[in-house]
Task: structure prediction
Amino acid sequence: MTWLEAESPRVSCPEHGVVVTAVPWARHGARFTAEFEDQVAWLVARSAQSTVAALLRISWRSVAAIVTRVVSSQERGRDLFANLQRIGIDEISYRKGQCYLTVVFDHDTGHLVWAEPGRDQATLAKFFDALGDERCRRIRRVSRDGASWIVSVVDERCPNAIQCTDPFHVVRWASDALDEVRRQVWNAARKGGQPGLAHALKGARWALWHNPENLTQRQQATLVEIERTNQPLFRAYLLKEELRYVFQLSARRGLPRLDRWIQWARRSRLAPFVKLARTITEYRASIAAALRYGLSNARIESGNQKIRLIIRRSFGFHHPAALIALAKLSLGGLCPALPGRA
Result:
């Protein structure tokens, strides 16, 4: 370990008052050199803070403070909102008790450009306030799930943006409707004195949810049995699979098939799918845009998985500011290079 000592006189600044004069080899308020802090930040972006603290013989709190300083330093002089045209918006839970972050990613760079605690209209409005009216008008595409609070704010603040409903979330709506039908059929069998059928239906969830190409032989046999004994549930399964197939097609072939699916679901006599048909009709324009432009929240979901990994290896966060700083360091293109490396 090396200790570096230097005279750093106090100066009187007309704007900031009495402060310690800046030095070229350390950031303001730091007890470590800038190169040491860059090394800490590079390691933290790839491993747990406690591991980095033990390796470099500093406290866990020092590591957290270094991350905040480095991210602030990297953001200074950079325009994270430059050239934003295609963005993805989502929310992610960071701890129990309905604690969420709203996150915004740039589709073109893959970077996390903004995050804030909360998941409502007021939270998302803060992003567009920071972006400014002129840049809001430059946004051309917005991918998101079906959350109404996202839809309404984007409609209001981004007049030139085309919204794209994430296909994964649409298929998940169908999976939820399928599971609701399965529970209805299971309850009817249980109350109708058919315990064997009820037991088989309760264990059929994964056979119904999984993609056909990923089914085990046992799950395939379960589907065959459902087709033979329970036509309403099998019809629900076919509806889910048909909707999933729609999003594997081009817009030219997929949109007519989506319209046929809506008609089929309306006539299915399955209440959850009749309701889903109304929902998809409401979101049809944004679903069609997702097919037409090939835009989804896949990149955003990948970023969210990395944020969850950060949360797990840090054993959670008491305050979202520390998580946001670490997420920006890892996913926002703000991680510095290792000192002395090209």
Q: What stands out?
A: The CA atoms of residues 189 and 197 lie 6 Å apart. The chain has a mean pLDDT of 90.
